[in-house]
Amino acid sequence: MTLAPLRVTRQRPRQDLAAAERAAADFLAALGIDCDSDGLAETPGRMARAYAELLTPRDFTLTTFDNGEGYDELVLARAIPIRSVCEHHLLPFLGVAHVGYLPGERILGLSKLARVVELFAHGPQVQERLTRQIADWLTVHLSPHGVGVVIEATHLCMTLRGVQAVGATTITSTLLGTLRDDPRSRAEFFALAGIAHA
Ligand SMILES: Nc1nc2c(ncn2[C@@H]2O[C@H](COP(=O)(O)OP(=O)(O)OP(=O)(O)O)[C@@H](O)[C@H]2O)c(=O)[nH]1
Ligand SMILES: [Zn+2]
């Protein structure tokens, strides 16, 4: 097998944690929350660091391999944990992603499917775009015959506040190539992902 390591790095946004901490303190003060008590004194700093962590993806090395053995069955990673923040409220949405592909020229290490999910989950997102970005990225880097991505998530902006639809989950999917066009492959993908599909 031929190794083709590829270091995946994201252009990190300029981050000024001290400014973010001051802004968090102002934000809380504007909402009438007094940070002078012992318990809250460090909170603006924690908020700044927590959001910096949530919004910044980790770099990783992606190694793809020639599909020398010609493996042509579905490869699927089920229930990859997903955590992101919605770009409308900057509140978390949490759930799982099922990511599969029908190998073409290239295959990749199984852990990298979860890495790709993590790469796009960081930063302000909407679930539909996140789903599509994962599928497109795999299509570009693996030239597979098909790609399927399903995300099932709970949005805290929908459950904790607003409409307070506690327990509601949102499912999004992107199917490309054979997984979109061939009913048998599509049904197999949904069956292996454990999703009821008419
Ligand atoms: N399509 C989509 N919508 C999202 C996502 N995350 C949050 N939203 C929605 O974004 C919308 C923002 O609507 P607005 O009316 O501008 O904001 P809002 O007044 O806070 O809306 P409510 O949540 O209904 O109180 C809401 O309907 C959210 O449920 C997502 O990933 N995809
Ligand atoms: Zn939201």
From TrEMBL:
Pathway(s) per entry: Cofactor biosynthesis; 7,8-dihydroneopterin triphosphate biosynthesis; 7,8-dihydroneopterin triphosphate from GTP: step 1/1
Gene3D superfamilies named among the record's database cross-references: 1.10.286.10, 3.30.1130.10
A Pfam family annotated for this UniProt entry: GTP_cyclohydroI
Substrates-to-products reaction catalysed: GTP + H2O = 7,8-dihydroneopterin 3'-triphosphate + formate + H(+)
Domain of life per record: Bacteria
Family to which this protein belongs: Belongs to the GTP cyclohydrolase I family.
Record protein name field: GTP cyclohydrolase 1
Organism of derivation: Dactylosporangium roseum
